[in-house]
Specification:
Shape of chain B: globular
Largest sheet of chain B: 10 strands, mixed
Shape of chain A: globular
Helix content of chain A: 10-25%
Strand content of chain B: 25-35%
Largest sheet of chain A: 7 strands, parallel
Number of strands of chain B: 13
Distance between the termini of chain A: 38 Å
Radius of gyration of chain A: 18 Å
Strand order of the largest sheet of chain A: 4-3-2-1-8-9-10
Largest interface: A-B, 52 and 38 residues
Order of helices and strands of chain A: HEHEHEHEHEEEEHEEH
Strand order of the largest sheet of chain B: 4-3-2-1-5-8-10-11-12-13
Structural class of chain B: alpha/beta
Number of helices of chain A: 7
Number of strands of chain A: 10
Radius of gyration of chain B: 17 Å
Oligomer: heterotetramer
């Protein structure tokens, strides 16, 4: 019987290796899989390349992973946010690399990676420094830049409901990068607010089909990053 | 300013509001119009600010502030969101600006300074894909320098993308022939406006 | 107040002009908007380019539109199906053009058209006659072919539920090309089994966001193509 | 044949079955295995054939035949479906064939004849994207000609894509070094098989 649920957060992240590329869902705190990120901090993998829209805030979640010097490179669209100090300090000290990607290009590169599309043309960033060194090409009189699909070894994603096959639903704007990141990673690791029996999720409303998911762990009361930041907590605590 | 922008958005438009001052446009929708707000983090049909205590930290806008949904809203993932944006489906986008050039170039994501943390977000996709780009900004910088220039010195967000500029001093349209002043603010005359603007301004000839 | 519903099938299709490119949803009969197609037959537009996975069956729906000599070119992946005789006859007589596209490439070209992506690379059709004359390029040791996004003037789509904003849900495998075709057409025209009040469709389960839809007409008892074919009906009847 | 294929599909695999003979593979899943069937028209978790009178003309497989769903199935649109296929997420695809070459080229969509209506469907995407391509076919054509050739004369579906060939006479693996016979059918010997095959066949040396 196919059953993708695992017994613990530690088991969910145990295979992540040094040097891995990891996609982490979330837009700000919405959809950020904090418990999986903390499990990854405990697990120890380093020299990571992380693909995520932001760089976390305070000293918890993604910011804590960066603070532990476990991330050598960030690929993101918006590395500075309210309460984000960890990344800016390391970046200005030259201790972490940044590949800045327009948000829509980032989303499309992830989707392309998951869909077997190695490269595509987009109008975003043409005539800006972010297109520098990239191939430009005119189609029907408009200039576009060639962008490459991105794949990852792992994705860490937060969802609402999951079943044993890996079918997922999301909550509100926590959906953001989760569905495309599940498609683009060799191994997708998902924390679900609730794991339900197969068949409970209507086939019409599944957002992520199970084929894109590998490991599921139920985290029924996930922390909100903003609460942890307001309490000035630092992970590991 | 925000009110001036709101007046120029037709009934039934799909609108994306940038972070900061642009968000205020939603407070001034003229009566009888229905606009649909898209936020690029995955919501079409953004509603009002939630009442205190009703916030959901996972129901937020692009500025990461709590929002609500209207009846008839929907959620979607980021690739679908930028299908709307890049695919030309959004009618109007209102953005802030650091600099605007006389030919409509926009710079609003980085000063290019060595120690600045660059952060672009969705701005480059928005200016590339949305039909009309309206800019809302203070006419001058905090230290009194012009923001409307012959040429942007900061790294561009997009080239020739701005349709109109709404400032505390005037409304200015970007035309092929140059920058045309459509409306002057209260107690502002054309000469004063030109003195505070690097790029040459034109007046519409009366019909 | 935004209200995209129209009063009749005739009103829904009234703006379709001679020479238009029209995307028509459906995989076989599942999702085929027969009533909209029949309204288009009545409406009279000709010299059409039609993008649809198949070419219809019997003498109704898309096959009837073709039989009326209103389609100058088909862009599709599988033009011959059980009970399809109209297209094969016209094609062998040299009276209709065919652009044959692999099904996944067809889907991706439509999605790209809707997403503002002018072109992308795909591995499908490399080393086959369907890649002939197209640019090929190697990424990471694998050969890909460059394919262009497709846009349409109109799309005709069948859905399950719709609201006045144009938010749509679909039924089972009738979903197929509908959602992507809505994104790729300047004007998307949708027949819904039921039009509901705004807010009735849960924001989490909307499949096509309203922004991609222009006109909605309720057709509460749509015909099944296979029933009409079994009755040997011909449209116009 | 279909049973031989089914035995070679591991527990937990995601499987796409081509139209026709490949569809029969679903009838022979060995006990204790759970396979998930994808049909490229938008269903993951295809179930059994519906009972008479229970058919839904809009719940069909890629062969346009009525199907059912298993608990835990889901529906999706065509672009998402080919994300699964092209993106390498399907483990096994079973296809029919008109011709197969000794180096694993597959031709299964067109004879190339002038008056043939070409129809490719999803075959080219499947052979480009699915991890393992298994072919199930009669060993010879209706008029007794070989289908396993030195080179395909029909237009290709994909080059070097076939892993194994399951016919009424044998199971043949496509290796870099050539075509290796893994299993002979009842009452078939190697010489007979070679006589009915244009391409040279090899025998696995015993370990």
């Amino acid at each position: 019987m196919i059953n993708k649920t695992v017994k613990s957060l530690a088991e969910a992240v145990q295979d992540i290796h040094d040097g891995a590329t990891i996609m982490i869902s979330g837009f700000g705190e919405a959809g950020s899989p904090i418990e999986l990120i903390h499990a990854l901090i405990d697990q120890g993998a380093k020299d990571l390349t992380v693909v995520s829209n932001n760089t976390g805030s305070g000293n918890v979640g993604l910011a804590a992973l960066i603070e532990q010097r476990r991330v050598k490179k960030m690929i993101c669209s918006f590395p500075r946010t309210a309460n984000s100090t960890v990344f800016p300090e390391l970046y200005n000290a030259g201790e972490i690399e940044l590949e800045l990607v327009p948000q829509g290009t980032l989303a499309e590169r992830i989707r392309a990676g998951g869909a077997g599309i190695p490269a595509f043309y987009t109008p975003a960033s043409v005539n800006t420094p972010l297109a520098k060194g990239k191939e430009c090409r005119v189609f029907d009189g408009i200039e576009y830049v060639l962008e490459r699909g991105i794949k990852a070894d792992f994705s860490l994603v937060k969802c609402e409901l999951a079943d044993r096959y890996g079918n997922l639903t999301y909550h509100a704007t926590a959906r953001n990068f989760g569905p495309i990141m599940c498609t683009a990673a060799t191994t997708s690791i998902v924390q679900a607010k609730k794991v339900v029996e197969a068949g409970v999720i209507d086939p019409e409303i599944v957002v992520t089909p199970g084929i894109f998911v590998n490991h599921i762990i139920e985290v029924s009361n996930p922390a909100h990053e903003s609460d942890l930041v307001a309490q000035k907590l630092t992970y590991p605590w | 300013m925000a009110q001036n922008v709101a007046v120029d958005i037709p009934d039934g438009s799909y609108v994306n509001l940038g972070i900061g001052m642009p968000e205020m446009v939603a407070d001034f929708v003229p009566e009888g119009r229905e606009l649909i707000y898209q936020t690029e983090n995955g919501l079409l049909g953004m509603g009002a600010v939630p009442m205190a205590g009703q916030e959901d930290p996972e129901l937020i806008n692009a500025g990461k502030k709590p929002v609500t949904t209207i009846p008839g809203a929907c959620f979607f993932h980021h690739a679908d969101s930028f299908t709307m944006i890049r695919g030309g489906h959004i009618d109007v986008c209102v953005l802030g600006a650091m600099q605007i050039s006389k030919n409509g170039d926009l710079a609003n994501w980085s000063t290019g300074a060595a120690n600045a943390i660059p952060a672009v977000g969705g701005a480059m996709d928005l200016v590339a894909g949305v039909k009309r780009i309206l800019v809302i900004t203070k006419h001058n910088t905090k230290d009194g320098k012009p923001k409307i220039l012959n040429q942007c010195s900061y790294p561009l967000t997009g080239k020739g993308v701005v349709e109109s500029i709404y400032t505390n001093l005037a409304i200015i349209d970007v035309k092929k022939e140059g920058l045309f002043v459509r409306k002057l603010g209260p107690n502002v005359d054309f000469e004063y406006l030109q003195q505070h603007t690097e790029a040459k301004l034109f007046q519409y000839t009366k019909l």
